[in-house]
């Protein structure tokens, strides 16, 4: 407890560095959470749109379309893109905290040298420096969580909008093109391959148009799942912060130790 208390006091003393760590941690945690929400939104959207398409097929069984294949392909495209961004984000987080810790060690080099002179070993110094991350992690975690609680519906709505833009990059146009089958040849004068817009079988009710089919209900994304993803991302980012900071502090402290041991 004494070590933790000393680290907290040191973090409070170096307020600028603590604020810098907190801002980056909170920002990265928000980006991680947004990316997880996009993945959740895409999975919900695929299930939701396929459900709508089943209703259309029941209303118009004579209509053929490659929508199922297009949706699956677009889902693979978007999910692969999100996975690449996720990996890049992890690597970037480690690198960012490496730079921050290197800068912090440089600013506090006299303090670190003083610890060396009074006989504190490298491992103990590293332990103190890493424990000082507790305040940025706790404050950043609490801040982002508070924002998610207060603005969850807006957060989900924006994630749906962003995800739709990524999906639209796969589709040339977010519209359906229905192809007539032989059973519909007597119901419409349109040629095969043209959009079916003028005639439908009797008693068939088309519940969605070409735009509303791709709309996703934001109520489908529960806060519970967002919160669980948020906790997972917090743990992952904390691990990335520890790894990056450890590398940065260790390399800088080792360099200071090497310079200190050089003969005058």
UniProtKB/TrEMBL annotation:
Pfam families: FtsX. This is ABC3 transporter permease C-terminal domain-containing protein. Signal peptide: none annotated. It is found in: Cell membrane. It is a multi-pass membrane protein. The chain crosses the membrane at residues 20-40, 85-107, 128-151, 230-250. Keywords: Cell membrane, Membrane, Transmembrane, Transmembrane helix. Its main location: membrane. Coiled coil: none annotated. Residues 85-157 form the ABC3 transporter permease C-terminal domain. InterPro entries: ABC3_permease_C.
């Amino acid at each position: 407890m004494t070590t933790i208390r000393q680290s907290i006091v040191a973090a409070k003393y170096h307020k600028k560095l603590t604020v810098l760590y907190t801002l980056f941690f909170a920002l990265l945690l928000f980006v991680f959470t947004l990316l997880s929400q996009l993945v959740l939104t895409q999975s919900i959207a695929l299930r939701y749109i396929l459900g709508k398409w089943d209703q259309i097929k029941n209303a118009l069984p004579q209509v053929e379309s490659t929508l199922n294949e297009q949706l699956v392909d677009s889902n693979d495209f978007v999910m692969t893109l999100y996975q690449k961004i996720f990996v890049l984000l992890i690597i970037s987080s480690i690198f960012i905290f490496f730079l921050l810790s290197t800068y912090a060690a440089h600013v506090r080099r006299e303090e670190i040298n003083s610890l060396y002179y009074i006989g504190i070993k490298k491992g103990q110094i590293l332990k103190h420096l890493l424990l000082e991350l507790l305040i940025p992690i706790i404050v950043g975690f609490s801040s982002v969580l508070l924002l998610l609680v207060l603005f969850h519906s807006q957060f989900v709505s924006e994630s749906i909008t962003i995800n739709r833009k990524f999906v639209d990059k796969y589709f040339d146009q977010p519209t359906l093109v229905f192809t007539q089958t032989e059973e519909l040849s007597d119901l419409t004068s349109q040629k095969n391959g043209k959009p079916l817009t003028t005639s439908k079988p009797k008693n068939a009710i088309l519940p969605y148009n070409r735009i509303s089919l791709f709309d996703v209900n934001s109520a489908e994304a529960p806060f519970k799942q967002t919160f669980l993803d948020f906790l997972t991302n917090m743990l992952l980012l904390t691990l990335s912060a520890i790894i990056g900071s450890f590398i940065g502090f260790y390399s800088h402290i080792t360099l200071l130790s090497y310079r200190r041991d050089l003969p005058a």
